[in-house]
Specification:
By secondary structure, the chain is of the alpha+beta class. The chain contains eleven helices and eleven strands. The strands form three sheets. A five-stranded antiparallel beta sheet has the order 9-6-5-10-11. A four-stranded antiparallel beta sheet has the order 1-4-2-3, covered by helices on one side. Strands 7-8 form a two-stranded antiparallel ribbon. α2 runs parallel beside α10. The longest helix is centred in the C-terminal third of the chain and has 24 residues.
Amino acid sequence: MMQGLTPALAALETGMLDRSPEDSEANPWEFVSPWIVYGPLVIFWIMMGLRYRDFAIATLANPHIPTGGLCGESKSGILARLRAPQSFWIAPWQAFMTGKGSIRHATDAMERLDLSFPVVLKPDIGCKGAGVRLIRTMDRLEETLALYPDDIPVMIQKFIPYECEAGIFYSRLPTESEGQILSMTFKSSPFVTGDGVSTLHELILGHPRAGKLPHIYLPRVKGRLDDIPPRGEVVPLVFTGNHSKGSLFRDATHLVTPALTRRIDSILRALPDFHHGRVDLRFASIETLREGRGFQIIEVNGIGSEPIQMWAPEATLVSIWRTQFRFYGRAFKIGALMRQRGFRSKGAFDMLRQWRRQSALIARYPSSD
């Protein structure tokens, strides 16, 4: 095991997945123009909308969440629907508004939830890890909240110290008694290991992945670039588990077990009419995760959550398109079945309105860690 790594992270590096995070190359399609990756999906969405005579019918896959979770939904609003015993699996959280008194609201929340630093602070409405920060001190908390405009809903949440993070995509047809896990993807932060001689800047430029994407990683350690990490010290380069922020993804669908599927199904069945979306969680070890225990959920996302295994290094552009068509096509199918049960979508203009609102909010958030 590499010095400084926990046994859980070491397990990811030794045989459970194909390659170690430190050896990972970038997927060549990760940072190209969004139109290359998502342009065909727009065409696909239009075709499916014409087929089902409703461009927003996919939002009915989760009819009690705004836009089905495509955009503009409240993270806390979804989590608040989970009650005991299912809430046991959720990392403790509380939402509040920025602006006057936000520091007091944050500290009151920490006291109520019995939290100590570090904690996670993130926007209540957003996507792709926008604005998510790991807060280690009171000064950092005050500094981050001051960067927000007034009246922005944010969440403070317990930091789950497990080294490993996963995105599990769950789906259930309304006609099915049990759901299934369509995919499971492990997330990890690329890291550099100090040699006692090189600066952090030099270590990043020499990293097989980060060195090819310095514009992604160097700003994240701004102010520390001239530091010389001691020999053996492991320095993670990103906290937010999103590919656009620099995290590494590994397809781990082959590790899904019936026990894990039953556990995720039992949790998400507690959300009224929730049929299609991704659970993001942190877990203690691969072994306990496969047994359906030893994890904490940090977010539940709806139909707008990407099937993130498509960003694994081995994925091709064609496989990325096929994955999107499969997952969003299933959302349309579920939505059509829910329409048969009497649900009606709010239409394409509502989707556009929610997307514009979300985009305007994200533009006002501070940078993420």
